[in-house]
Amino acid sequence: MNILIIEDDKIYAKHLCDEICKKFDFRVDVANSLHELEKINIQEYDLVISDIFMEDYDENYIKENIIDKNIPVILMTAFPDKVFREKILKLNVIDFIIKTESNHFTHIIYKLEVLEYLRHRPILIVDDSKTALLINLRLIKKRYPFTQVITAKDGVEGCEKLKECPNIKLILTDYEMPRMDGMQFIQNIRKQYDLDEKIIIALSSVTEKHISSTLLKIGANDFLNKPFAEDELMCRIDNNIKNAILIDEIKELAFRDSLTGLYNRRYFFDIAEKMFLTAQREEEEVSILMCDIDHFKKINDTYGHQTGDLIIKKVSYILENSVRKNDIVARYGGEEFIVFLYDCPVRFAHIIGEKIRKSIEKAEIIDSNDNKIKFTISVGISSKGDNLEEVIKNADSMLYKAKETRNKVVADK
């Protein structure tokens, strides 16, 4: 993402620029005056973060020269005013942030995290009212301009959209709808996805006393009564997405192998079991690759454990770059790895296994004593079994056969 900061306080602008660059892989430029801004092609930027008041520069200039050119804007000011805030939020801006000493750049970084997270994760809006659907659609596109928005007229269509686009992260759903209401829709989602996998914000104009608690108890992450303020919905979305980001970060720490960065054995079984059951429902074939570095104990004894670690990291890199993004590669134990190939018959898995074996055979590492060390891997492959455990057991048997000669791929027929 390309970001332009417009701020006449040079120290504040520099620090903000540094904080953004530290946190994100964004290109960030700064304009400290209207004179500098007018030399810049504003159309080059995906997002503008701007102070509201500089010399010869105010909300009217921003509207005419930035907002009206359809460039998303986050506005900042150190002088909040309730009336002025209402005036600003009527403009087509993402957010209006108060600069204070206490939060420094926290709110801006927080907002960028949410925008970037949702950039790759669509939002689904489900509502049978065309008017309500249009209002929420416009609101989301205004506040989250980089996010794909998908709509559905009821719970049945909502379920279809989720199936078509499984990477949907956030769902806004009405309660009262024909065919399948919000309650049934939420229950259906929770049969497949946990609270942290799909975020559901339920919306309702029903005045029934316990409706909010009922919807929360059956699986909604949050609830809002209609009508609601635009800012209130945005804050609810932001807070829920921020929680999702934190949960993802915690999972990464818990489920990643510290040496290789691959998923660990615990996570593999957690996610692979779900993928296996999905494959059975969809009648898709999956294959398991069990991989083991040959003569690894001898390598450690000869060159030391640090060299052994370099080889493990090299093998990990080759494995991860030899499969598709939706496949799972995990460190299964010491020098052993496991690969889950979704929608991949054993004959194609054998081709992938051979590709991995040959890549590793060609590879080498240079240790701290300038020794050039070659190494190989043995691979066992299976797609047979009524459950994941059976498939892994069969792949392990194939690995045992491969280890009889080593540097070999063996697949069950």
Care to describe what's here?
There is one protein chain. The protein contains 15 helices and 18 strands. It is an alpha/beta fold. It has three domains: 108 residues, Rossmann fold (3-Layer(aba) Sandwich); 134 residues, Response regulator (Rossmann fold, 3-Layer(aba) Sandwich); 149 residues, Reverse transcriptase/Diguanylate cyclase domain (Alpha-Beta Plaits, 2-Layer Sandwich), CATH 3.30.70. The strands form four sheets. Strands 11-13-14-12-17-18 form a six-stranded mixed beta sheet, with helices on both faces. Strands 2-1-3-4-5 form a five-stranded parallel beta sheet, with helices on both faces. The longest helix has 26 residues. The radius of gyration is 27 Å and the shape is flat. It starts with a strand and ends with a strand. The mean pLDDT is 92.
Largest sheet features:
6 strands, mixed
Number of strands: 18
Report the uncertain regions: none
Strand order of the largest sheet: 11-13-14-12-17-18
Q: Nutshell version of this structure?
A:
By secondary structure, this protein is of the alpha/beta class. The chain has helices spanning 10-23, 34-37, 59-65, 82-89, 106-119, 130-143, 155-164, 182-192, 211-218, 230-255, 265-281, 296-303, 305-320, 346-362, 388-402, and strands at 2-6, 27-31, 47-51, 73-77, 95-98, 123-126, 149-152, 170-174, 199-204, 222-225, 263-264, 287-293, 328-333, 336-341, 364-366, 372-374, 377-382, 409-411.
